Amino acid sequence: MQLAHADFASALVLPEAAQLSLAEFVDDFGASLLDAVRRQNPPVYDGAADPRRDELMDRLRRKPFPAQRDAVQALTRLLLDTGDPAAILNAEMGTGKTMMAIAAAVVMHEAGFRRTLVLSPPHLVYKWRREIMLTVPDARVWILNGPDTLQKLLTLRAMRTVPAVPEFFVLGRVRMRMGFHWRPAFNVRRTVYRDELGARHVAAYATCPDCGQWLTDRANDSELPMSAARAKVVLDENRSACPHCSGRLWTLTRKGKPQRSHRELVMDALQQLPTIGVKTADNLVRRFGEEMLGAMLADNVHEFINLMDEEGELVFSDRQAARMERAMAAMAAMEIGFGQGDYQATEFVKRYLPQGYFGLLVVDEGHEYKNAGSAQGQAMGVLAAKCSRTLLLTGTLMGGYAEDLFYLLWRLNPRAMIDDGYRPNVRRSLGPAAMAFMRDHGVVKDIYREAESRSHRTAKGKTISHRTAKAPGFGPKGIMRYVLPCTVFLKLKDIDGDVLPSYREVFESVAMTEAQREGYTKLAALLTAELRQALRCGDATLLGVVLQVLLAWPDCCFRDELVRHPRTGAQLAYQMAVFDDGDVSPKEAALIELCRREKGRGRKVLAYSIYTGTRDTTSRLRLQLERAGFKVAVLRAGVEAARREDWVADQVERGIDVLVTNPELVKTGLDLLDFPTIAYMQSGYNCYTLQQASRRSWRIGQRNDVAVHFFGYAESAQMDCLTLMAQKIAVAQSTSGDMPETGLDVLNQTGDSIEVALAKRLAA
Predict the structure, then answer these.
(1) What positions does the domain Helicase ATP-binding occupy (predicted)?
(2) Which is more confidently placed, 743 or 500?
(3) Of the candidates 38, 135, 106, 667, which has an alpha carbon nearest to the alpha carbon of residue 367?
(4) Which residues does 524 contact at the CB level (< 8 Å), separation at least 6?
(5) Pairing mode, if any, of strands 658-661 and 632-635?
(6) pTM, two decimal places
(7) With contact defined as beta carbons under 8 Å apart, do 380 and 214 qualify?
(8) Can you say whether residue 569 is alpha, beta or left, with left for phi > 0 and alpha for psi between -120 and 50 degrees?
(9) At what angle do helices 542-556 and 754-763 cross, to 10 degrees?
């Protein structure tokens, strides 16, 4: 039947009652859609497991859950059977990514990829070793994270025999990109001459330490010998070579750290162990010698714990031995090295180890390598190119921007990106390719600004300026082309329901006191007026200042607030404190009530506060909670990252009720199972941190229901921030296997970062 134009248009518009969201549409028609997708794009893994790989996983000391087993089967099918160079495990926090990566490495070892290089955050290096030793029988683990990394790398270069058991090499992310320090190296030759008056002078000139030839100042096109003072300046700019014999005119040095004796190194190593102080360490060195103790510490700390004297008696008491054993069980960080050489580990692997020496590269917390010009991102790309296969682990693959994925995909599989036309330009820059990727698959805003020109005296004119800005969002085409073909998704809900308890998030709006509201209203009026005026002039200098003050002041109004212009230093606003040290703010009262309720149920609380620097609120929270009768501990950045897990275990053993910390300090790696209740005093606006820190206690092994509480002051910028965070996280979930409500949700039509969106709401 022929339809008229009007009838055809009306036929395309469904009645309101018949309109469906994308999720509802998929629920209703998902089966037929899935059949069509499978016909057009056959899945790499359809659930038919390889029995040989299942058998290998059955041999592990810790057996994977069925959902984890399927993820390992899918990853190894992609890397081994399909031959893809890289795979991504985008698994929710707490699903056991470490366990799955170890199981995949065992399967890869059996298939001929004998050595596995693990790229880990520095505070998780020893956790990786512990997890490997607990999972893989007969595994050999090397830690490449100490000052003796160069010595171990030299040993690796000499190891060319094929390992019979799985070998793992755990490299810290910071150590990976750390280079060496150097200084100019030349000989000084002194000559004596007399001036016209017969006075005697001594001149010092630089010569090559190898051939002895004079060094000339080529920078000034001079053929005269270069003075020693001038040589220190010229040769310090770059590592140079002698123009006569090509000998090096530089040498290695340890910047800021003088060479130390072996005795001093052993003394420091001993004092890292619990119960051993300066006097005990000195007595041990006197009795047993630095060589013997150093060998024990570097090779086998357990042998040191069971150290015996000449009469066969144990040196350490049962209490001391128990504390050392517990420390090792908690953090497994008792590997001590005595090397003193620095060399960039990535550079060594690139130059001195053969291609494919490491069969599999496991990149933990892979989203940390997304930035374009970061040294660690570039170093990761070098390692991925040197290893045969790469497995990237992450719980938050995308932070909202298509550019986040571009550089990750480029470092994982540059050939595929080049084939799609994204290649470096003539200056070897990837900037234009990244922008093209953003335009094809992300959101790019073209901003045009038109203004009347005042430079024309006899005629009127207009000037139009144009700039581009990236915005959050990633299109369905990009997800289908770049994410789905190489990514395995796993959610905690996919694991057996008996493994994990329930999880819920609770938002609690807290009303401000009258004085608090008046102070905030006054402060907001002054600062937003200044911000509007600055934005009219095209000056965004005040943007960060205004946002920080308005977000922080309701929580920090126990101190006077003086706001100055960041560039001119002029005073913009001043607000006196409204709470004394003895007063309890509404949000603090809400936290105290939550802690009291949870303590009555036998549950500990983990309280997050993002203000731990100039606006430190953690000390005040501790004081208020202790006044209310709670036992409180505050985890600060001063606790070394590698020791935080052990530090928290000590606090739990002391019987604390509340742990207060910044979410940045615990967002990755730590299993805080003892704290089933989490409270956010402030959320911040980092999607990665919020998603990671919220899952610290909802992990495999948790037996209690987990509740996450978000506190926000009503009628403040904090409410807008929480709303925007929810929107951005929803966009980010489109690359994590979650279905948005509408197809356009993945493009995030608001298109602004949280900071810009907040500024727009404030300046509206």
Answers:
(1) 60-429
(2) 500
(3) 667
(4) 550, 717, 762
(5) parallel
(6) 0.67
(7) no
(8) left
(9) 80
pLDDT tens by residue, 238-283 = 888 888 888 888 886 665 555 567 787 788 878 777 778 888 888 8
Strand partners, 144: 171
760-763 contacts at long range (C-beta below 8 A, 24 or more positions apart): 761/717, 761/720, 762/524, 762/528, 762/531, 762/546, 762/547, 762/550, 762/717, 763/528, 763/531, 763/532, 763/535
- For tokens 């910044």, the residue is 662
| Residue 55 half-sphere exposure toward CB, CA atoms < 13 A | 4
**Domain 52-179+342-438+482-489 -> CATH class:** alpha beta
Q: Which residues contact 278 (CB under 8 A, 6 or more apart)?
A: 267, 271
Please, which residues bridge with residue 253 across strands?
181
The Cα 384–Cα 387 span in angstroms is 5
Residue with tokens 């002039």: 537
∠345-349-352 over CA atoms, to 5°?
120
CA distance 717 to 714: 9
Cα Rg of the chain (Å, integer): 31
Residue spans of the domains in the chain: they are 5-40, 52-179+342-438+482-489, 186-248, 263-331, 514-575
Please tell me whether residue 439 adopts helix, strand or coil conformation. helix
Helix (H, G, I), strand (E, B) or coil at 224: coil
Residue 682 Cα distances to 34, 513, 618, angstroms: 42, 18, 12
| pLDDT of 100 over the 90 cut | yes
153: its two tokens: 């790398």
Cα–Cα dist 266/257, whole Å: 16
* Helix H or strand E segment including 708: strand 706-713
